[in-house]
Write a sequence for this structure.
């Protein structure tokens, strides 16, 4: 196993949450961290990411996926939505709302809202 994968596995073992944005889920999958879990990734590169983890339950049509302590998102803006959902999980909805306001970002709270899966022919 490559040194990078070993380090990723070691660091994730002690983490309360493990998150990835965009094609970062390919790294988690390649290291085996997503085996048996639900996950998603950037829709434009979905086939490549999917090939990195045959034992992952890849979800084609969600902005982000929460599976236990693992949070994976589609593209960068979906990663912001996922991060706000994680803040809500860790603290509360008011804290997530405040973070969105500070960032001047309109939070898409519904992970089901994923128009990019259709645009990229995944559904």
């Amino acid at each position: 196993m490559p040194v990078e994968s070993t380090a990723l596995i070691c660091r994730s073992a002690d983490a309360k949450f493990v998150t990835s944005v965009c094609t970062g889920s390919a790294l988690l999958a390649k290291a085996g961290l997503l085996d048996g879990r639900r996950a998603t990734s950037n829709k434009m590169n979905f086939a490549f990411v999917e090939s990195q983890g045959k034992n992952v339950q890849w979800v084609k049509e969600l902005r982000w996926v929460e599976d236990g302590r693992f949070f994976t998102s589609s593209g960068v803006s979906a990663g912001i939505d996922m991060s706000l959902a994680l803040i809500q999980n860790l603290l509360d909805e008011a804290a997530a709302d405040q973070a969105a306001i500070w960032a001047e970002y309109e939070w898409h709270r519904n992970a089901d809202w994923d128009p990019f899966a259709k645009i990229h022919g995944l559904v």
Summary: The chain has a mean pLDDT of 94. The longest helix spans residues 76-90. Residues 66 and 110 are 12 Å apart (CA to CA). The beta strands are 18-20, 38-39, 57-58, 64-67, 70-73.
